[in-house]
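Design job #97: recover the sequence.
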């Protein structure tokens, strides 16, 4: 299991940053390779809600389902994957800082199958991609009117 952590300060209020990141349908705006993402369980987002995404991984179309494991509006959002070639557990914490928001993403990844062979390369890629993802989130949110 590989662990990663990234913190980013975004010049937007906590409620706005939380709303954007916890809305799974937004993932395709900031995460490369995500073709579609959505909540698949009925009702409001809450612990136990089910999410799904379809992404292109190494030229293959891969669908993954997730379960929301943490949900405290404007404070925490967490999820874990229940399917797919990579097991993921991620949590985001949101902290107000002088009108801005500090988001900390903590993630654990465990590869399976053929992906296990490429785990060291995959790990370097994940760390680099986390930084790029948060730069994109920051850019998207800070340039909104």
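Job complete. Output follows.
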């Amino acid at each position: 299991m590989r662990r990663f952590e990234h913190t980013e300060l975004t010049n937007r209020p906590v409620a706005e940053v939380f709303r954007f990141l916890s809305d799974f349908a937004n993932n395709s705006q900031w995460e490369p390779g995500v073709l579609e993402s959505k909540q698949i369980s009925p009702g409001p987002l809450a612990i136990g809600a089910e999410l799904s995404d379809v992404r292109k991984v190494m030229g293959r179309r891969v669908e993954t389902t997730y379960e929301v494991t943490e949900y405290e509006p404007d404070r925490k959002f967490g999820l874990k994957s229940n399917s797919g070639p990579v097991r993921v557990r991620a949590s985001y914490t949101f902290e107000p800082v002088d009108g801005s928001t500090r988001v900390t993403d903590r993630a654990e990844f465990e590869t399976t199958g053929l992906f296990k062979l490429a785990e060291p390369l995959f790990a370097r890629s994940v760390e680099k991609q986390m930084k790029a993802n948060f730069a994109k989130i920051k850019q998207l949110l800070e340039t909104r009117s």
